Amino acid sequence: MIEVHNIRKEFKTPVVKEGRFSGLRTLFTREYRTKEAVKGISFQVQPGEFVGYIGPNGAGKSTTIKMLTGILHPTSGHVTIRGMNPHKERRSVVNNLGVVFGQRSQLWWDLPVKDSYDILAKMYSVDVGDKERRLGQFAELLDLQAFWETPVRKLSLGQRMRADLAAAILHDPDVLFLDEPTIGLDVNAKRNIRHFLKLINEQFGKTILLTTHDMDDIEQLCNRVMVINNGELSYDGTVNSLRDTIGLPTVITVTFRGPFAIPEQFQRQGNPAVPIRVTSSLDNTVTIEVNRREMKTLDIFKELGRWGELDDIDMEDPDFEDVIHKVY
Amino acid sequence: MLYFTLASKAYARNLQYRGAHMVHNIASAMFGFMYACIWLGLGADYALGDYGTQGMVGYIAFTQAALWVSSFVTNGLGIPQAVRTGHISLDLMRPVHLFSHLMAKEWGQIAYQFVYKSIPIYLVYYFAFSLQLPGKAVTFLYVAIALAGAAYLSICINYLIGASALWTTESSWLYWGNHAMINLLAGFFIPIEWLPGWLQTIAWWSPYPYLLYVPTRIYLGFDDVSYLWGTLLWCVLLTLTCLLATGFLRRKVEVQGG
Amino acid sequence: MTTRSWLSLYALLIRTSIKSRMQYKFNFILASFLAALIQISEFLMVAIVLFKFGAIQGWSMHEIGYLFAVMTLSKTLYRTFADEVHHLEHYLVNGELDQLLTRPMPVLLALMPQKFRIMLGEVLQGGFLLWWSLHGMMAAGQVGWSAVPQSLYIIVTGAVILFSIGLATATFGFWTTRITELQNLTEDAARTAAQYPLTLYPKWMSSILLIVVPVGLVNYIPSLYILRGELGVWVLPALAGVALLCLCLSLKFWHFGLTKYQSTGS
């Protein structure tokens, strides 16, 4: 469906000289600083996949998406979408592409939401019957009726994003590129959007590539995740194996009733022979870190029971955010 | 001290865009050159009043250079943009008065334009048309006062244009409208005494002649120093208007949240 | 996308653009009023000189009025349909061009109808001035009725030339992002210069205005034939040829520029 072969993108920015009256100097000699935003990325996406594309700010996520959608021309390498080159055959490619940029809307700012759909339908040559049928469907799923007649500029961020999503799939594209579709939304709005995305992926078979900073998006939606860092792919696989690869420990907070003693072997820091690591001990509360792939939960409790009489145990599995933090 | 910092930051900020400004200088120099050519063409067939052909060329050269001090200030002092982005509420929260804050920034901008635009442009004309500098040193003093007054008036006018952005999204039209009025009523291309009577009357009831015509006349050595009282009067009037406008603006932002 | 469906889309976009302008009635009236004011003051700048002095270097009042009118109308035609080309900087700075690049149509055709500008003031003023100058010259027996269709013809070729200049200038924005300053030179300064007979300027400058930034081909050169019978009738077909050539060159340049587009920020 999507094939990316070793694409690179360099940006050139002129170096501004400092100092007084240096305007003339800058005018005649131009130096450029070359920044390599994407350094040779290759991947393939099969039809029906839901791929998360994550990475810290400035890692090259948006640049990649823009090269896939034909907005930017790669410095080298090539991209095909459904067998076509999005730069040479841009128009045929985008006819089958839905794009949402979370940061800006593709709807007409001053017009009621439904007017934007009229324009888009015409633009993508969607006939009136199809348009009405699809809009009816989306309106129900995304609850668009509430703001059907409202000018886009008066919509809340959540409403706008829903309206934008509907706009992106009005022409029934096979492939969707979503650049941070949940950015700035509240919990409720995020849940709505995720529900809808899951539905169109599972029921309508759309292939979706999503960039986000929200790890819940990835966990709940994607069956595959790619991590880009510094312009290079540093991970490409399932979400679960990503978690395993990193192997972050579970944090357990134990409160003892009465006196307790931490066996000496656990008190030494960084002893690789023991799976339990004590990170803090205050009054009768002890915090430890355990990698649960190395030690079963029941065994952990048994071990702790030997230290003293247990009062309360609180376990915290590794946060996906932290997993990602580790990858970055 | 704060105001000086604001002004020097504004000055320094411009240094980034020197390439673009160079192109702008060429455009500006071309404009003046073109207008000078028109007067040279006219001067070949007609006597050009008090000025004479060479005098009219000197007139155009000076107005074209002075334009960068007394006309091309930031659109609405940047208020329209602050309104669009919602920054305006932040700006109003600061412990300095919005008017003086923006004015300080604009003085930096004007200083930059004087150094990098007015002077180079005038130098080009000076050599291209073999112009003459004023004979008396005191003339420079009066011209400096007249130009400073013109810059101040321009800042006030643009502050008012900027304030209008809270009521209309089309305030950039006011900016261009203001430019058109400068072209016509400030004696930018045609000295005011050659305008039709009714237009002269309108001009002298407005602050526009003090932006270009008065500094230029003084520079060319006409005995028009008393016009500086007019500059002063308009400075006072427009300052009061700006302070009043800030009051309205503050209320509008407080009520509607920008 | 066929031409017909594009035209119907364009019509829809124009309708919606007008509709969205009309949502802010006060703004619309204010903008129209100020546009008229600007137009009138621009006209007065020329009119006052003509009124005070009459002819400039052998060009009569009517002839200079004609130059001004043709330039105004050509510019109006260009800006009515392609105002957004002139405002490309806005799309480059805000990254809104990204959106247009995801549309299934040529970027230029997606850009043009983003905003449709109603320039009634310019049409009225240019039309009046054209009528006044042609009427004056007909009364004096300088030109015949054939000047009317010829004038309309050169307004169209002129608009194509101005559009080409505007497009080529805007294309520089793909490298420099900022284009206002360059536009000031190639569009505003050049156009203003051509409102007067080019003989006023030194040779090097009039050559620039005929070859590099060919605004002189919009009104000056055709006027030599239409008003003064100089050159020859070949000027008219030649103008169409030159206009097409300019258009092709600037479109080529535009397409090249698009491949250099560096989208902003995130």
Automatic annotation (TrEMBL), chain A:
<keyword id="KW-0067">ATP-binding</keyword>
<protein>
    <submittedName>
        <fullName>ABC transporter ATP-binding protein</fullName>
    </submittedName>
</protein>
<dbReference type="InterPro" id="IPR027417">
    <property type="entry name" value="P-loop_NTPase"/>
</dbReference>
<dbReference type="InterPro" id="IPR017871">
    <property type="entry name" value="ABC_transporter-like_CS"/>
</dbReference>
<dbReference type="GO" id="GO:0016887">
    <property type="term" value="F:ATP hydrolysis activity"/>
</dbReference>
<keyword id="KW-0547">Nucleotide-binding</keyword>
<dbReference type="GO" id="GO:0005524">
    <property type="term" value="F:ATP binding"/>
</dbReference>
<keyword id="KW-0813">Transport</keyword>
<dbReference type="InterPro" id="IPR050763">
    <property type="entry name" value="ABC_transporter_ATP-binding"/>
</dbReference>
<dbReference type="InterPro" id="IPR003439">
    <property type="entry name" value="ABC_transporter-like_ATP-bd"/>
</dbReference>
<dbReference type="InterPro" id="IPR003593">
    <property type="entry name" value="AAA+_ATPase"/>
</dbReference>
<dbReference type="Pfam" id="PF00005">
    <property type="entry name" value="ABC_tran"/>
</dbReference>
<feature type="domain" description="ABC transporter">
    <location>
        <begin position="2"/>
        <end position="255"/>
    </location>
</feature>
TrEMBL record, chain B:
<feature type="transmembrane region" description="Helical">
    <location>
        <begin position="226"/>
        <end position="249"/>
    </location>
</feature>
<feature type="transmembrane region" description="Helical">
    <location>
        <begin position="21"/>
        <end position="44"/>
    </location>
</feature>
<dbReference type="InterPro" id="IPR010390">
    <property type="entry name" value="ABC-2_transporter-like"/>
</dbReference>
<dbReference type="Pfam" id="PF06182">
    <property type="entry name" value="ABC2_membrane_6"/>
</dbReference>
<keyword id="KW-0812">Transmembrane</keyword>
<feature type="transmembrane region" description="Helical">
    <location>
        <begin position="182"/>
        <end position="206"/>
    </location>
</feature>
<protein>
    <recommendedName>
        <fullName>ABC transporter permease</fullName>
    </recommendedName>
</protein>
<keyword id="KW-1133">Transmembrane helix</keyword>
<keyword id="KW-0472">Membrane</keyword>
<feature type="transmembrane region" description="Helical">
    <location>
        <begin position="110"/>
        <end position="128"/>
    </location>
</feature>
<feature type="transmembrane region" description="Helical">
    <location>
        <begin position="56"/>
        <end position="77"/>
    </location>
</feature>
<feature type="transmembrane region" description="Helical">
    <location>
        <begin position="140"/>
        <end position="161"/>
    </location>
</feature>
UniProtKB/TrEMBL annotation, chain C:
<dbReference type="InterPro" id="IPR010390">
    <property type="entry name" value="ABC-2_transporter-like"/>
</dbReference>
<protein>
    <recommendedName>
        <fullName>ABC transporter permease</fullName>
    </recommendedName>
</protein>
<dbReference type="Pfam" id="PF06182">
    <property type="entry name" value="ABC2_membrane_6"/>
</dbReference>
<feature type="transmembrane region" description="Helical">
    <location>
        <begin position="118"/>
        <end position="140"/>
    </location>
</feature>
<keyword id="KW-0812">Transmembrane</keyword>
<feature type="transmembrane region" description="Helical">
    <location>
        <begin position="233"/>
        <end position="254"/>
    </location>
</feature>
<feature type="transmembrane region" description="Helical">
    <location>
        <begin position="208"/>
        <end position="227"/>
    </location>
</feature>
<feature type="transmembrane region" description="Helical">
    <location>
        <begin position="29"/>
        <end position="51"/>
    </location>
</feature>
<keyword id="KW-1133">Transmembrane helix</keyword>
<feature type="transmembrane region" description="Helical">
    <location>
        <begin position="152"/>
        <end position="175"/>
    </location>
</feature>
<keyword id="KW-0472">Membrane</keyword>
